[in-house]
Design brief:
This protein has about 130 residues and is α+β, with helices and mostly antiparallel strands. It is about 45% helix and about 30% strand.
Length: about 130
């Protein structure tokens, strides 16, 4: 009986990735970027040329910051508001907005389901 409970618990834990919503993927990606965790951010992307170039540009910009600038950026927690624009079984469009600075920023994420995981196919940002 103990082994059955342990097996069920293990199965539940290992299937948690399958339950991740498109909004949660967008949240995780922005959190990773805002905390300079480029490895985690890369895992949330479909590895196409545009996504890799964008991630490389973000990494270059963060690498050019001084340690004090990086610490200030991380400590200034960003607040995003998420809207599910369109969600189907295989694709989703999520809009994240942030109005903490001089401009309102909107980031539009287009996600695709790959296997049982939602991944970011592309994204654009604008004011």
């Amino acid at each position: 009986m103990k082994y059955l409970i342990l097996f069920c618990f293990t199965l539940l834990i290992t299937n948690c990735d399958a339950q991740t919503s498109p909004v949660n993927v967008a949240k995780e990606y922005l959190s990773a970027i805002d905390n300079f965790d480029h490895v985690k951010a890369k895992k949330l992307l479909i590895l196409n040329d545009n996504n890799l170039k964008s991630l490389q540009n973000i990494k270059k910009a963060s690498d050019s910051m001084t340690p004090s600038e990086r610490a200030k950026y991380v400590n200034n927690k960003k607040i995003y508001h998420f809207t599910e624009e369109k969600v189907s079984a295989e694709t989703a469009k999520i809009i994240a907005t942030n109005n903490q600075g001089a401009f309102n920023v909107a980031i539009v994420f287009n996600l695709k389901k790959v296997g049982n995981k939602w991944l970011i196919n592309d994204y654009t940002s604008g004011f």
